[in-house]
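To assess whether the prediction recovers the assembly geometry, we first specified each molecular entity separately, as shown.
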Amino acid sequence: MTTSIDPPQVDSERTVSVTVNGVHREATVPVRRVLSDFLRDDLGLTGTHVGCAHGVCGSCTVMVDGDPVRSCLVLAVQVQGAQVTTVEGLARDDHQGGQVLHPVQEAFRECHALQCGFCTPGFLVTIAAGLEARDAAEEITEEEVDELVGGNLCRCTGYANIKKAVRHAAATMREDAR
Amino acid sequence: MTTKLFGEPVRRREDARLITGRGRYLDDIGAGALAAAFVRSPHAHARVLDVDVEAALDVEGLVAVYTYEDLTGPMAEPLPVLIPHPQLHAPRTGYPLANGVVNHVGEPVVMVVATDRYVAEDAAERIVVTYEELPVVVGVDAAREARAAVHEDVPDNVAARHHQETGDVEPALAAAPHTLSFTQYIERSACMPLEGKGVHARWDADDASLRVYSSTQASTSVRAAIAAKLELSLDRVEVIAPDVGGGFGVKIVHPWPEELLVPMAAIRLGREVKWAEDRREHFISSAHERQQRQEITVGYDDDGRITALDVHVWHDNGAYTPYGIIVPIVTATQLVGPYAIPVYRVVVESVFTNTVIVTPYRGAGRPQGCYAMERTMDRIADDLGLDRAEVRRRNLITPDQFPYDHHLTFQDGRPVIYDSGDYPGLLDKLVALVGWDEAGALRADARSRGKMLGVGMALYVEGTGPGPYEGGHVQVLGSGKVLVSTGLTSQGQGHETVFAQIVASELGVPIEDVEVHTGDTRRFGYAVGTFASRAAVMSGNAVALAARGVREKAIRIAADVLEANPEDLEIDEGLVQVRGTPGASIPLRTVAVLSNPLRYAFDEAAKQATQFAKAGSDDKPPVAEGDAPGLEHRDYYSPIRSTFASGAHAAVVEIDPATWEIDVVRYAVVHDCGNVVNPMIVEGQVHGGVAQGVGGALYERMAYDADGQLQNASFMDFLMPYASEVPDIAIDHQETPSPLNPLGIKGAGEAGVIPGTAAIASAIEDAVGRRITSMPISPTELYDLMRNETAERTQASLQTGVPA
Amino acid sequence: MKPAPFRYADPRSLDEALDLLSDETGAKVLAGGQSLLPLLAMRLAAPATLVDLNRVPGLDTVEATGDGVRVGALVRHARLLRQTPDAQAAARVQPLLARATANVAHPAIRNRGTTVGSIAHADPSGEMTSVLALTGGSVTVATPAGRETVGWQDLFVGPLETSLAGGAVVVDAFFPALPERSGTAFAEIARRKGDYAVCGAGVVVTLDEDRRVSAVRASYISVGLVPEVHDLTEAVAGEPVDSADWAAAGALARTLVDPDTDIHASADYRRLLVGVLTERTLADAAAEAVQRSAA
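The predicted structure of the complete assembly is given in tokenized form:
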């Protein structure tokens, strides 16, 4: 009755191939490895931080096929073949040997939206994904700002400057969209 | 002019790496290191009868297992009592790994080292520890009543009795026209940085040296502790605090067991070992703070002026006292706030409970003290039918009373003498900022929407920047780069920026040329640490003094070369020049080259330098007596005592009388930390502090059950505020420079959190007309209070018939 | 906080999945994983094998018909909140689903977690269990023996416990359409926005042709061990919708529920909220019923 050609594989270990920040990466890992550990320990991308390991703080948020998800709540084997974007992949190559920061990265610096910086990658990825998914030409509403920052914990900033940075980044993207 | 940098909202220099994922936090270091995990006590109080590791031994990837039996020398002794105090009569500390008894859930019993953390947890899970449970003491009342003993040899559970008085309180109370007495409680929260603790250790057998990275607030002291406990010479140990993902106090405690055990394992195994604390571990084996029972009696006159204050604090210090009684001393001495209290007596009894240790959390005893004092002010106002702002105003220390001596002894052993401030000014600004006098209109508007509205305020004075010292080192390289180092650590306060602003301003160089390093014992060996709002005051002034030393030397060398009078020279934009004589100048980087008489022309800078080199006198050594090669200077700042910052907060709350949900709809802060180095960073500190204050007032508590199990040891159930729970904050500034230090600054790190609980309690009480005597308060508790027929009502509510 | 060892398979068909579940002892289904992964990290669950449904085709559809909305096992919460034709159709047929879904956690969780997974997880604090109950819904369960429909009453046995056998896969959930002349509403009170609710309420109000109240039903979250539906009709039966005494319905609801005390709220407080939320949501649901009656 099975429709696939090969019998289903039940594995303790798998080779995971994934495109991270536009680069093909591959590593063989135990199947219990969560994506956050895979990115950090197997691929050396330590920009993604683990703040709680149970899906509440949002520090480990990365994009999987464009959508922000908690990388501590996804197994590495589950992203086989997917496109993953981490904080290291938010800036764009300027083709002159440097990088152009994403507007939300610029805004975080400009608005002092980070202190210790530990939760910052999760906020940046979540906000970048959210801003890219909306119509940049539209002025951002306070409801949208609240939604974009509302699911991540920060213990340092009290959030005021993070919200300010979202408005700032949205304004920049609006300018660029014109 | 570069000197403008001081006081400017300069954008942070640390951000470039942190926003691109290039920060280096503890767990980002040492890829491939062995991982440590711990078997921790599941019981709050028990004897350890047996540890059976057998089942763990066949876990593939297991490298080592350590129990107390494996500890030798000083490691087998109790952990140090870092800050002994004569009145801490029964100090107790645990062992790096439990020695026969465990006194709280989470206490480490066994350390497992394996190829990675997954495997280490597999092995830890298989280790069987047999316990005999003992009676458990949870909560300050259970401890106070000695329902059981935490430590067998301390049957009353009292670790310390601390006592200070400024006069004869009993006659003063007897003579007071009015007195009132009340008891109130405040509960536990915790620092809860987003990054837990962590340690990485690497032993270099060839060099016989140890390098340790720790997510700490005090790398120099961790170094000393490791050297002492592992019997290494201090020069064989280096400790580095990398990027640290928040501290708020919990990382000032040292040595944590893991800070000793991980290096121990690294040495024994000859391999890198790392431990990155997970969230559950952080909840049950780090530190908490805030729980106190406060019994207060106050005497006052018809105008509401306090004539005598008598406070008895029962302070829960948890299972052990590694950090001494700093927190309750801070409560005792900072309680008086901005007020002139003619006679004050405070007795603190610090008691053991079978819970996680209590050590400083941002505010470090001040939020509790502020809560005691400010709620007292509210009571007096209510009793006399006076405006709460007016009662406070009448009791304030006035600007002409500075320096104001409270005749108390502060946590640093120095007198509590306020150096400067303008407390009536703060209050006036606060009243205007929050619209205190228009509260009636706000109340009416809320009532029309079916809501109950209340306003509350709280003032505080915060001793900041305690000694004994911090140091700074400034060095100008031949490249023009200015290296600045100081020993204290950073956890997000922006030290790389602030200290660079100070040095750039003092030295007259572009900030881009300045590079700041903190918390690295390889660069600076003497330091105290980052706590007590002391970094800007202590290291800020130290690096300023060091920069002035460099400046003086640079001018001396340049004057020689330019054949100018040193008094005529200035440094601006990295150029030493004769004031008013364009062209007569020499770059600071060239001066740096000239400062070292060994000048092989291995680069352009050195070649350039040679053209200025004068033929030295054959009679003098190339390095003059008392001089040293290089353009650098090291200096220390050591204050006579703390400098006292101050502030005033007000909260406006709306309460839904159907659901008893509490919403902080307006929050106002007036803040005085003396001269401000970087207002953007200071405001950021205030924002973060206020968020923690709101959290502590309405959301966060450590929910222990009677068995000493922490029921909410996760971010799901320990309710740290998200953005949705934090109100918008209006901030106004006042600057009363400190006369105690060269830069005139006072600390700003902790201030934002201090008055939150007091101000919000006051606002809720104002809204509902019932006494709030325990904080934090949640909607379910407010509901219980409102339907409790015997709950005390405020006089104001009885007179005005506030709906309740 | 690292999961204990397990084995993993990601079958490419439902039959493969069912085979694996019956062949492997201690096997557990993985779909969105947003409830399971925290349990694994805390080692509160330690399945021997995870059978990941994510690569099984055909489970990611949202079908709205006149009868109701059928949501496949791999449909993420976020999908029901998007402005796509299938989600919009679902919201017209049974508006309660999207309304409740908007209260589920935070966006990053909704991007991964599934409606069906929430139901199979059977957490009485979750929104979806209550929605299934209130709408009179059911799930389609596949076992090696075939498919069967299990109504919500037969599904929920206790907190985090369903009647389903270990080898079963819930392939979809079916939420019957909102009846004619009916309106619905959902509200919850959480300590922090996005948290599991301290108390939540979903209600359905049905009017007769004269705009009098003919039926009122409610279901609550974080109240009781399993989702229940309470009939509140008697409190307001026959009353004109514009002057119905919703407070009376709320008062009745308070007498019907049996909530628990935990660290976030007492049983009494939850009962209070049941009353308040019932009254508030009924007013909104009635407005919708009026609107839909007019249409």
